[in-house]
Specification:
- By secondary structure, the protein is mainly alpha-helical.
- It has helices spanning 2-11, 13-45, 47-63, 65-84, 87-112, 116-122, 127-142, 144-159, 164-186, 196-220, 232-268, 274-288, 292-311, 315-342, 344-351, 355-370, 372-388, 391-417, 421-445.
- The relative contact order is 0.13.
- The protein contains 19 helices and no strands.
- Helices cover 83% and strands 0% of the residues.
């Protein structure tokens, strides 16, 4: 498939984009249904479980920041090395990244387990939700090692244009998660009904299955072998580029997801209707994530192609592909948004029959669907910067929009002006407009290609 894509790049750029994007769109559809199954089963139990699930799902993303950062570094380094034709360098980068994922996943699990109570306190979890939320958090910490491996192995496949393998593991994860959610959460299929505990263990089992499948494929295809173990002198020269890309990406993830946790805390401390608002936000996020499916896919496609062209020293074509991907993405997202707008209420009612929670979810969706074109622009251009290694710009722009605009405005509007959750949703829209405009200006008019690796000829250690 990689050779076909390389041949198509010059002759049919839009077909190239589509070949890389459609498996990733489909993969995101399956990931979307993972969230749908979780929230639907949680809603069948009670609203406290539903609200707890939303809080801890967001916390899991926060705990995966190092894995996501390493994945960004892997995509930039591997895709640029592929574009430069340095195949031995590619294989060594694969080995370094997979070993790092295995080590770091274990390390973070053991570091976070003793301090999970502090996070619950920082989130201002209401007392009636505390026990359930604590159990979710404990089991989600156990899933960190396989989740780290899953994130990194998927990044390796994408960087090498092998976009079908993340799709296969996504299918396995979705099916096993749905089976275990329904079986352990509601007692279907003759399995023991352990309620909310079943939701937590469904996540653990499905993620572990997907990561083991990816690991087996890496070995079977020869991506991981004795040749992947680079000598220490090579690691000392090559690893700094991964770190250069990864640390701003990791810091951006911390800034971004901690911003969402603070947003949850602002919502959880509203003067009135805080639990209904949290449950509505959890449902709204799940439904809204359907609109992110093409956005995430095109984000990853942008990373791959930008990295490939910069590795081949063709920055002008890299920029052109970025703009093409943005154009295609906007068309897709407008179709998705208009379609969702027509069926928002029936979608919400799939997750809850509580009128107060329904009203909160509808209010959240109204403002955030309005923000979707700006959100998509941010996501695609952030993917382009990831492929170029310009993660520092992502961190500064997206982190600044979150902490210096979204959160202060959410607190003022939510607690003092409107005194309802609507103020928080309005603040989210405003921050997305400013963020996307800034990213577009930098992509169009600034020299982001300078963050890419420089191919060193006749230097065996660089390979």
């Amino acid at each position: 498939m990689a050779s076909d894509i390389a041949a198509d790049m010059a002759q049919s750029p839009y077909r190239t984009i589509w070949k890389l994007s459609w498996p990733q769109i489909l993969m995101m559809v399956f990931h979307f249904f993972i969230g749908v199954a979780d929230v639907w089963v949680a809603g069948k139990i009670n609203r406290e479980v539903q609200a707890s699930l939303g809080l801890i799902t967001q916390s899991l993303f926060f705990m995966l920041v190092v894995a996501v950062a390493l994945a960004n570094g892997a995509v930039a380094a591997i895709s640029q090395s592929e574009g430069a034709g340095l195949h031995r360098r590619v294989q060594r980068y694969v080995g370094v990244c997979v070993v790092a994922a295995l080590v770091l996943g274990q390390l973070f699990m053991f570091l976070c387990l003793p301090i999970r109570g502090l996070l619950l306190t920082a989130l201002q979890v209401p007392q009636e939700m505390r026990y359930v939320t604590d159990y979710f958090l404990e089991v989600y910490l156990y899933v960190l090692p396989p989740y780290f491996l899953l994130v990194i192995s998927n990044a390796v496949f994408r960087a090498r244009k092998r976009v079908m393998f993340p799709l296969y593991s996504g299918i396995i994860i979705t099916l096993s998660n749905a089976f275990l959610d329904l079986g352990l959460g509601l007692g279907w299929f003759g399995l023991p009904n352990i309620g909310y505990k079943g939701l937590a263990w469904a996540t653990f089992g499905s993620i572990t299955a997907g990561s083991l499948l990816n690991l087996a494929v890496l070995f079977a295809r020869g991506d991981l072998s004795s040749k992947s173990l680079a000598p220490w002198r090579w690691i000392k020269k090559a690893a700094p580029y991964i770190l250069k890309v990864a640390w701003p990406a990791g810091l951006m993830q911390i800034v971004w997801h901690s911003g969402y946790l603070v947003l949850y805390a602002i919502t959880a401390s509203l003067p009135v209707g805080k639990i209904d608002a949290l449950a509505g936000m959890s449902i709204g996020l799940r439904i809204e994530s359907f609109l992110f499916l093409p956005a995430f896919a095109f984000n990853m496609t942008a990373s791959i192609l930008i990295g490939h062209y910069l590795g081949a020293r063709r920055p002008d074509e890299a920029k052109q592909f970025g703009l093409r991907i943005l154009g295609i993405g906007l068309v897709f997202i407008l179709i998705f948004a208009v379609s969702l707008w027509q069926i928002m209420l029936p979608c919400v009612e799939l997750f809850t029959k509580d009128p107060a929670v329904t009203a909160q979810a509808m209010d959240y969706l109204w403002w955030n669907v309005l923000a979707i074109p700006f959100t998509l622009t941010s996501m695609i251009l952030a993917g382009a910067f990831n492929g170029a290694g310009a993660t520092l710009w992502n961190m500064l722009i997206m982190g600044g929009a979150t902490w210096f605009l979204r959160l202060p405005l959410a607190y003022v509007l939510g607690h003092h002006v409107l005194k309802t959750s609507t103020g928080i949703w309005v603040a989210m829209l405003c921050s997305q407009i400013v963020q996307s405009a800034t990213l577009f200006y930098c992509f169009k008019f600034r020299n982001w290609a300078r963050f890419a690796m420089i191919k060193k000829k006749n230097n065996k250690d660089s390979q």
